[in-house]
Amino acid sequence: METKNSRKIWAIVIAIVILVIAIVAAFFIGKETNHEERPREESQEMNNDESGDSNEKNQEDLSAAEWSEDTSDVFGRSIKTPASKVGKPLGQVKEQDSLQCEVNSPEKLTIERTHDMQTLWSEDLGPGAVTKDGVPEKYAHTAEAAMLAAWNSNAYLYRGGDLATAAVKTNFTGENAEKLGAELEKSPANTDEKATRRAAPQAFKITSCGDDRVIGDLALPLPTDENGDTDNPTWIVVRMSAVWQEDDWKTELESVKQPANKQIANLDGWSEWSF
Predict the structure, then answer these.
(1) What is the value of pTM for the model shown?
(2) Mean pLDDT throughout 59-80?
(3) Cα-Cα-Cα-Cα dihedral of 29, 35, 41, 42, to 10°?
(4) What is the pLDDT of residues 109-150, one digit of tens each?
(5) Which residues contact 11 (CB under 8 A, 6 or more apart)?
(6) Do residues 137 and 231 share a domain?
(7) Are residues 40 and 51 both part of a single domain?
(8) How many whole angstroms separate alpha carbon 177 and alpha carbon 255?
(9) In the chain, alpha helices (H)
């Protein structure tokens, strides 16, 4: 009685025999065809190859044109500057009806320098679009995405000027949002070097999640500790909150108290992003 392995081997042998017969038949049939067709076919193949190479080169040029600069910050993290200067969505934002609070594995993010600020971008968590005013929007319905939205919104708020005004109208909610927006219209953009060199967070910790509201902490890396020592890693902790409204995350203004411990020396217990 044949085993499964023996039957499988015989099937492979038969397939090889059929393939060999087909190749031999094609060879003799080809010998009888007009030799003038061969140069025409070879020429067509060469044109196809050249067309393929050209398409690949055009795709490479297009991809390269999407970024104007690729640098790094003092922490060794890659910083990409989109050619548009306002932000480049990286992929299709995943859709889901209910809020996902758990964080199975932190996302791999790209830090983009937009409007001279470090902003966070994910392939499937967002931002998935940029408004006509240059403000990122359209995030996934997850707690982690809420933290991305909160950081990007506050980064633009800190920038000041017209950008901050647009960010407040698009990305913020709360009693003071409208009032703040009116005040910002009268203020110029923040050109302070400290504003434009503010480092994006390295990790996050969700402290509360439910009923389409998320509260969490962000850990921003500092180049030195409070004594100026570069050998002691230090992070400053900022607490932010966001609510799910109109199918997107809206950052709340001054709705949560900041943590008592505003600086930490390690990221134990934190969800750390990779870049």
Answers:
(1) 0.74
(2) 77
(3) 120
(4) 999 999 999 999 999 999 999 999 999 999 999 999 999 999
(5) none
(6) yes
(7) yes
(8) 11
(9) 4-31, 37-65, 143-159, 161-171, 177-184, 193-196
